[in-house]
HNH nuclease domain-containing protein (Thiothrix fructosivorans), 89 residues
Amino acid sequence: MYRARLQAQLKSLSTVNPTTQCWEWQGQISNSGRGRIMIQDDGMPRTVGADDASYIAFFDAIPLKMLVRQTCGNRLCINPEHLELMQLP
């Protein structure tokens, strides 16, 4: 239930670029140029990257020592088809 609401929220806060198919984040943007959003984590609110929130909403929790990256290179993209997990160095 929560994941479905988060998916809907993420979709409502993004626009689809017809050329790249990127879901470009229209919500709050951090100083690093990445989207960010408040989510519920075990009932506690916390701020995460919009790309992390998209991964959580459409796939699953992000494993320890992994991070989410956009395969398209667009920092504001939250399209789950453009997201992949990467091992931290």
Observations:
- The chain has one domain: 2-87.
- The mean pLDDT is 95.
